[in-house]
Amino acid sequence: MTNTAPTDTNHKVNSFLNSFSVRPHHAWILKGPHHKPKKEFLTKVANHFFPDLYLQECNNWEDKMYPNFLYISERHTEKPALSIDHIRSITKFVAHTSADGGWKMVIIDSLNDLNRNGENGLLKTLESPPEKTLFFLVHRVGKPILPTILSRCAQIPFGDEAQKKGLLANASETEEALFFLDAPPDPDKESDYIELYTTLKTKVGNLSKSGEKIFLHQILDEVKRDEQLVALYLNLVDKWVKWAIKHKALDEEDMASPFSHLRLDKLLSYDAYLSKLKREYSTLGFDPKQAIFGMCLKLSQRNT
Q1: Is 26 within 8 Å of 129 (Cβ atoms)?
Q2: What does the buried/exposed string (b/e) look like for 259-294 if buried means 16 or more CB atoms within 10 Å of the residue's CB?
Q3: Which residue has the higher pLDDT, 82 or 53?
Q4: Is the pTM of this model over 0.70?
Q5: Under a CB-based contact definition with an 8 Å cutoff, are residues 220 and 296 in contact?
Q6: What is the C-alpha to C-alpha distance for residues 93 and 125, in angstroms, rounded to an integer?
């Protein structure tokens, strides 16, 4: 997979700064399949807001002793995950205005490393953001973003040109997984992430093609009542269905979606059902396993 070119990063920085000058937003999620351009982007943006910060990509950012800049990373803490204690340190940091009355910046690297209490603490901070404080939340592979956090943040995508154009004809298994799951890779966990995608695609495809309940129960056993896995399943199946609809309507060959064998009317039926299911799951508080069971039951109704 190719990395984003420096000129692309410069363009992204300029676009962000232009947009921010017109309509500033307090929280931004950096999403996409590559970490290096995210760090390039953050370096340039931080140095723009704080010219005397002299931030460099190769620095240990957590060691920066600068009053208006805070970098939090699980890889540089004594605990295995970012917890409510780290969020409290952020809350304390942003509670006081800067000495010069300017901006403060908080970088959390990454959202994946927050435990549940940490996520809830971050959500409260984002719901009542301090004045003149910027949050940049880096997202890596392997864990869906809580919808409540996602809804309070703007997003900055970092992806391959092939992904931006939606071209998967010659994509590798890794590129396909990152395209549909829309999350940045952690080099240490990428193989597990791709394996998860392949497993989900195989089981969902088998269920849709055969209608055999054994595949339904396999999916239920894997998801259990894990809300994050449920959100991942629902979003992934929704994307596969929409992808298949697009190619079916254009009479184009598609091998990426496990639903490419279905007729257009069946796909449209799935699409309507999934939209309703996702909406009701997020608003009515369905039991996670109940939501997945309903989705699987719909997929098992054979009518190619």
Answers
A1: yes
A2: bbebeeebbebbeeebeebbeebeeeebebeebbbb
A3: 53
A4: no
A5: yes
A6: 12
